[in-house]
Specification:
seven-stranded mixed β-sheet; 14 strands
Length: 364
């Protein structure tokens, strides 16, 4: 008898260590590169022990670990092909799956209804509103209600990120946020603030989370965190074939410019005089959609690459490929796959030139 990984267990090899992702249980385990090497089509522990007599105890520990965590099952060699691997193909019927819409103190929300019908025709499933002005909260709430009630769109998820000043009327703000969080389509409300009253709020509504951080604009975007929030087939399969940040994404910055990401410089028109469809047809709009982590410097050797967000807006600006695409490591990532350690990205001496290029000094 031999053993085989369950189809929903996905191994990903890194430079110093590897990961096993459980797509069903939303869990993961760090494993050695040596263990990764034996997790092939079939695992024959008896044969391995005969080949590596000096590693018998290590192989036993591997087997115990895999069985304890229900990662493998026993099967006869002639039945091994009866258990095919899970398909890692990615497909979405939507031409645009998600959008980011930025709002600041100068944003005219009166222009947003112009794009409502296209949100439906493009098949947008999720929208993240990033509001950098508390004064716009009530106006934005009205638009979210209008958008939620529109029968012509396919939206199933709306998220809100909002920056609240340190000297804010916390009671009024809390009441407004709780009112918004009650909308069925709202999944999360993330509040960035240094206001101690808000930070000490018990946040009775599970949709609302407060983060002690001052966020003033899109320049704060692109930080790569060490936590893994979600593991599922859709995330991993999309990351294998496409760019995990920009694929099927369309963004509108605070002045109405249509972009891949609000933090990126290149614009493909403005919603005042350009339709989303016209921007989507621009020859360069999709140029980063298929740039995977396997193509990016550093990321291609990282065990987190299929569950990590990318950032093409702020990079180390060190490499470009033959097509002129920036394949540099994200600037705001502090993980080193060659040592397996995290460090503060903003103090890395190798990143200082890029930090100065983007004018990031005041944001770190």
């Amino acid at each position: 008898m031999v053993y085989k990984l369950y189809a929903d267990i996905i191994p990903v090899k890194g430079y110093t260590r590897s990961l096993l992702f459980d797509l069903t249980k939303n869990n993961y385990w760090y494993i050695s590169s040596e263990l990764y090497g034996i997790l092939t089509k079939e695992i024959d522990f008896e044969k391995l022990q005969d080949l590596y007599l000096d590693k018998a105890d290590l192989l036993k520990s591997y087997k115990k670990f895999l069985e304890k965590n229900d990662l493998i099952f026993q099967v006869s060699p002639d039945e091994i092909n009866a258990f095919p691997s899970i398909s890692m193909q990615w497909y979405s019927p939507s031409r645009i799956t998600n959008m980011i819409i930025d709002v600041d103190a100068e944003t005219s929300l009166a222009s947003l209804p112009k794009i409502n019908r296209e949100i439906g025709t493009l098949g947008v499933e999720a929208i993240l509103f990033r509001c950098f002005s508390e004064k716009k909260l009530q106006e934005l709430k009205k638009y979210i209600v209008y958008l939620s009630d529109d029968p012509h769109n396919r939206l199933r998820d709306i998220q809100l990120e909002i920056s609240i000043p340190e000297k804010s009327n916390s009671k009024k703000t809390t009441a407004g946020l709780r009112e918004i969080s009650k909308f069925p389509m709202i999944s999360t409300v993330t509040v960035y603030t240094l206001n101690e009253e808000l930070l000490s709020d018990p946040a009775e509504d599970h949709k609302i989370q407060y983060i002690r951080q001052s966020v003033e604009g899109p320049e704060n975007c692109g930080i790569i965190h060490g936590n893994i929030d979600s593991i599922n087939l859709e995330i991993i399969s999309e990351s294998i074939h496409h760019n995990s940040c920009l694929n099927c994404k369309l963004s509108i910055d605070s002045v109405g410019n249509i972009k891949n990401c609000p933090s990126m410089a290149e614009s493909f028109g403005n919603i005042e005089d350009t339709t989303l469809e016209e921007s989507l047809q621009h020859k360069d709009f999709k140029r980063y959609w298929n740039l995977t982590k396997d193509d990016i410097d550093g990321c291609k050797d990282c065990e987190f690459r299929y569950v990590c967000t990318d950032c093409r807006a702020y990079t180390e600006r060190s490499y470009t490929n033959r097509e002129g695409l920036d394949i540099s490591k994200p600037l705001k990532c502090g993980y080193n796959p060659y040592t397996g350690e995290w460090e503060e990205w903003s103090t890395n001496p190798l990143k200082q030139k890029a930090i100065q290029y983007y004018g990031m000094e005041k944001f770190i």
